[in-house]
Amino acid sequence: MRRFVTSDSHGGYRALVQCLELCGFDKEKDQLIFLGDVVDGWSESKESVDLLLTIRHLVYLLGNHDQWALEYYTGKLDQNEAMRKSWLRQGGAATVKSYGKTLPKKHLEFLQNAKLYLITEDNILLVHAGFDSSKPVEETDAFTLLWSRGFLEHHYRQYKQLKPVRISQYQEVYIGHTPTILLDKRQTTPLQMGNLTLIDTGAAFTGCLSIMDIDSKEVWQSEQVMALYPDEEGRNGISWNVRNLLL
User: Fold this and answer.
1) What is the pLDDT of residue 246?
2) What is the DSSP string of 21-88?
3) Which of 50, 51, 66, 185 is the most exposed place for a label (fewest CB within 10 A)?
4) Which CATH entry fits the domain spanning 3-246: 3.50.50.60, 1.10.287.90, 3.40.309.10, 3.60.21.10?
């Protein structure tokens, strides 16, 4: 079984299709570990989840935007207007447009059943945002796993200072959540820092969606996702077509 990892497609169904086709993914035989945030941003969140549900050996990890969407669709944001507006501004409006007022039961259960992290049999840790490396991941709180950038920022500083990056508890660690292009606009591919790999290459913004073979380390990428949705602003505040007119 080949093992693949991807993350943070943010409603970019067309990019997800491209990545799976480019790597020759077999929905019946291969494993896909998705590090969260399939929703919020581009207009095809529903189609994206429909596609993931066809993959036999899928492991889906919860992302912070997935959690946000769950809170909206289960009524938890009804009493928090500021948080609801923040979610809508940061991609949630596209998710509402995709789904309407309710999530299909299968999609609701899909997100509710998502894992917070995965440790493979060969001791590879995969998680959406990061973890508190001073303790076992099992003891790390959900906010840190889904939202915090502290783990990434600490190790990225080491990387930039040319210090060795090594997460000693695990053979390898894969995370999403923080787009590589927000750290360095030239970093358009997954960022490997020692045994830590950042797989989010900015599909929610101006970047591509990336998928990696965990064992061979080969990477395949979609087109720039905003070019696949040329009339949509996504989370950029400007569409591909309008941006090109202004250049």
Assistant:
1) 84
2) HHTT--TTT-EEEE-S--SSSSS-HHHHHHHHTT-TEEEEB--HHHHHHHHHHTTTTTT-HHHHHHHI
3) 185
4) 3.60.21.10
